Amino acid sequence: MEETIFSSTHTRIAVVTGGNKGIGLEVCRQLAGNGATVVLTARDEAKGAAAVEKLHGLGLSSVIFHQLDVTDASSIARLAEFLESRFGRLDVLVNNAAVGGIVPVDDPSFGLLPTEEKFSGMDGHQRIEWMWKNCRQTYDAAKAGLKTNYYGTKNVTEALLPLLQSSSDGRIVNVASSFGLLRFFTNEELKRELNDADSLSEERLDELLGMFVRDFEAGAVAERGWPTEFSAYKVAKAAMSAYARILARKRPALRVNCVDPGYVKTDLTRNSGLLTPEEGASRVVAVALLPAGGPTGALFDGGKEASFV
Ligand SMILES: NC(=O)c1ccc[n+]([C@@H]2O[C@H](COP(=O)([O-])OP(=O)(O)OC[C@H]3O[C@@H](n4cnc5c(N)ncnc54)[C@H](OP(=O)(O)O)[C@@H]3O)[C@@H](O)[C@H]2O)c1
């Protein structure tokens, strides 16, 4: 009996957003395989339940489902209440849920969601080039990109902060992207501000995102030095990384890090990636399970700390 109590208090409690497919599902599988109790969340109840069923079928009985739409405040509040009453703490939050911020266009020779074989013989650049040629950047998709990828991540994080603070080793892992690097910004002042984690505030980040939306609507993205291709996705990911750095500064007891999973074959990349979801997720899980007392406010790429620029 004593042993049960001991092990349950030392089992990591992890939440993964967007856990029903792609990298998120694999992160759930690998965290559970490493002994964590995993709350697999998904915005769609049926898809989430099916994903949990799949993991139970692999013998991973420590995975449970809870609904979470990261853009819905009441859904976020319900998850926080559930975690509070069930566990009273949270050890690992993996902010994985995201959308592309673009509208995919059907390529007749590839299809809307091509099989991975369609990309054989193409290198990474050619595959990204294909994705860029076969999408449209619209105002609505850009707004949805910011709403999910930046504000959704931020709002989930804020709601779960008290529970993470109740952990003896609270960790936040944001699934970042090489597309979120500041090298895609040509406005040097913007780049400097976003990279100045010591001075940047959440209020200023909100102002900058407001400017981006206005510039996008006015067709002034290139002229004002924002990333021009996959603009909203890149801006939202850059803002998410900047927010992680602000949070790391404000909450030194937590480990708040970002990790690039690499270019992965998922629905988001229309199966064009070079890595499997398993490979991409293993990079995320490695950061989630870093030894205690490690870096905070860092970006990891390929197993090493990397520059945000
Ligand atoms: N694939 C890559 O090459 C790559 C590279 C760098 C970074 N990333 C990042 O890796 C993460 C996972 O992407 P992925 O490639 O695995 O994409 P994916 O297969 O399209 O999965 C995205 C997940 O996010 C969920 N989601 C979207 N909007 C949501 C919302 N409002 N609330 C809750 N969940 C929501 C989706 O749920 P539904 O099924 O309901 O849509 C899905 O579970 C993302 O943060 C992405 O930016 C991916």
From TrEMBL:
Keywords (A to Z) from UniProt: NADP, Oxidoreductase
Domain of life: Eukaryota
Tagged with keyword Metal-binding: no
Signal peptide stretch: none
GO cellular component: membrane
GO terms for MF: oxidoreductase activity
PANTHER family, alphabetized: (+)-NEOMENTHOL DEHYDROGENASE, OS04G0532100 PROTEIN
Family membership: Belongs to the short-chain dehydrogenases/reductases (SDR) family.
Record protein name field: Uncharacterized protein
Upper classification of the organism: Eukaryota, Viridiplantae, Streptophyta, Embryophyta, Tracheophyta
Gene: LOC127771955
